[in-house]
Amino acid sequence: MKNAIPLRVKAAGAVAHGSAWRGELPVADLGRLAAAVAGREGSLRVELHAGRDASGAARLHGSIDGELELSCQHCLGRFRWPLRAAVDLRLVGSEAEERRLLRECEPWLVQDDSLPLREIVEDEALLALPIAPRCPACA
Ligand SMILES: [Zn+2]
Fold first, then answer.
1. At CB < 8 A and 24+ separation, what contacts does 89-95 make?
2. Total domain count for the chain?
């Protein structure tokens, strides 16, 4: 397991070798996520593995966790929110395959054999954010 999350890796090679990565990504370095939360402090601990599942399909799976600072929609106070997200993406090579799989799993369309790991982590973290955050006192 490599001790860093690269910006991007070659998809086919990572799947063939069963590559794995572990690392911390500062929230401040993830522009879209930093803009969506109340504070830019903190970082995400990330683990990712590429490989094939039992049916031979290429997948990227792993986990993201960390603490984010959010604004409560009710009292507008800031509070720390624990992010825990599982990553389980089916890596597909065409838009047709992506559409076909949308209902059974979360497909990721690989373009130019590139797997943008940090972009994927940021997408998954943004998807995990609560739509209407409430602090513990207002929940
Ligand atoms: Zn509140």
1. 89/59, 89/60, 89/61, 89/120, 90/57, 90/58, 90/59, 91/11, 91/15, 91/50, 91/57, 91/58, 91/59, 91/60, 91/115, 92/58
2. 1
